[in-house]
Amino acid sequence: xxxxxxxxxxxxxxxxxxxxxxxxxxxxxxxxxxxxxxxxxxxxxxxxxxxxxxxxxxxxxxxxxxxxxxxxxxxxxxxxxxxxxxxxxxxxxxxxxxxxxxxxxxxxxxxxxxxxxxx
Length: 119
What we know:
Layout lengths: L1 E6 L2 E3 L5 E9 L6 E7 L6 E7 L4 E3 L7 E6 L4 E6 L8 E10 L4 E5 L3 E5 L2
Parallel strand pairs: 2-11
Antiparallel strand pairs: 1-3, 3-8, 4-5, 4-9, 5-6, 7-8, 9-10, 9-11
């Protein structure tokens, strides 16, 4: 079992920045990858950034160059630095932990943190 708690969302003006945090607890040593997803009103949840246990990162094309995912292993926390925010970045951002076995996969989710980009 993995528990995830996101924080750092809020209201920000276009062009601004935010840093989202995801604190993990529980079976953290079994985590293979940590991801950030977002879900905008009326849209499907989409993957925006990922980081593996080995530190390899990947980003959705729509956020490349503006978002940066990182991890602090000492504090069991994953961050999402969001820069140059646009109104279309408005969404609930969810942290996701993935555990993978030989023939199974488990996904854990946080409750999300709301990011609103508006002037």
